[in-house]
Design a protein that fits this description.
Blueprint: E1 5-14, E2 26-36, E3 42-49, H1 60-66, H2 79-90, E4 95-98, H3 103-113, E5 124-128, H4 129-137, H5 146-152, H6 164-177, E6 188-190, E7 202-205, E8 210-213, H7 220-225, H8 227-230, E9 232-233, E10 240-249, E11 254-261, E12 265-275, E13 281-289, H9 292-311
Parallel strand pairs: 1-4, 4-5
Antiparallel strand pairs: 1-2, 2-3, 5-6, 7-8, 8-13, 9-10, 10-11, 11-12, 12-13
Length: 312
């Protein structure tokens, strides 16, 4: 089956405070998307406005940025029928592509609020075109605005930014300019739906690192004691690497360790502890090969952590 790339952009409204309705902090009012085939040729467009059901007054910042008035939405359909049409248009097993990491999370907040079937049972793969742009055209670390990328690539600014259909088109054109097809394997993961058990955990090997997304744990201490979380596996050969520095942290959020693989040398493990709305936590762990100067820096950081514990 030929896969479709769905380049997605959303516009949303919000209440006077983000805590006004935590079940749906942002309410989607426009869906814009571009469909591309496996050769990255554009094969279709989708653009629909949505009549809001939760926040019926346009937030002043939304009004200022996207120039949509509430009365412009009064005759539009509500979220569920629009979303059903969108999913039908996407086809089977679409590969979603977004600029940044926010859109799919907010889309699933809205779907959950209205009782719709989730897009996935656990973390969902997608392509973050903002990240791929940085990897291909810049330093791989920076995260630039969509308008910056359009200017760098000297694309024509024919339409206003901050409208879902226009931003989706700009993002699709940037995606087409990324000629290294291997980057399309550099999936990001939307974790709105966390792994429910070990069977749904994510372990992915990329060219230069591995990523593990765990199931939920009752608290941080339980997570760090778990053997799947604690061990370091060399992503190049699959062997368990012996830890030279056990897991330590300077801020109680990010944890690091140093391990050694007899075949591939030193590895740095990094754990990020993520909180869940239900009070539990899950772990995102990455492991990558590092150079000698990075090894020395880890020893320095570990010593700082020891001294911090000693004098607290």
């Amino acid at each position: 089956m030929e896969r479709n790339y769905i380049v997605l952009d959303l516009e949303w409204n919000q209440g006077s405070a983000l805590t006004e309705n935590p079940d749906i902090p942002f309410e989607i009012i426009e869906i814009g998307a571009v469909k591309l085939n496996e050769e990255k040729e554009i094969t279709g467009y989708f653009n629909r406005f949505i009549r809001p059901q939760v926040y019926k007054k346009m937030h002043f910042m939304t009004q200022k940025v996207i120039q949509i008035r509430m009365k412009d939405l009064e005759k539009e359909e509500t979220f569920v029928p629009v979303m059903m049409d969108f999913q039908e248009w996407c086809g089977e097993e679409p590969v979603f592509c977004t600029w940044g990491s926010l859109d799919l999370t907010q889309l699933q907040y809205n779907m959950q609020y209205y009782g719709m079937k989730p897009l996935s049972e656990g973390p969902m793969e997608y392509l973050d075109i903002q990240k791929l742009f940085s990897l291909y055209f810049e330093d791989g670390k920076s995260r630039r605005s969509l308008e910056h990328a359009v200017e760098v690539l000297e694309l024509q600014k024919t339409d206003d930014f901050h409208r879902a259909d226009n931003d989706a088109k700009y993002t699709a054109h940037i995606f087409q300019r990324i000629e290294d097809r291997s980057l399309e394997k550099r999936f990001s993961y939307d974790v709105f739906h966390k792994p429910v058990d070990k069977g749904h955990e994510v372990y992915t090997i990329f060219e230069d690192y591995s990523k593990y997304i765990s199931r939920e744990f009752d608290n941080k201490a339980v997570a760090l004691r778990d053997k799947d979380v604690a061990r370091c596996i060399c992503y190049k050969c699959g062997h368990i690497a012996k830890r030279r520095i056990n897991w330590f942290s300077l801020n109680n959020k990010h944890y690091y360790c140093l391990a050694y693989c007899k075949t591939h040398g030193f590895l740095r493990g990094k754990i990020r502890i993520k909180k869940v709305d239900n009070g539990k936590v899950y772990v995102v762990k990455t492991i990558k090969c590092i150079k000698r100067e990075d090894v020395e820096n880890l020893y320095v950081q570990d010593e700082k952590s020891r001294l911090k514990k000693k004098y607290l």
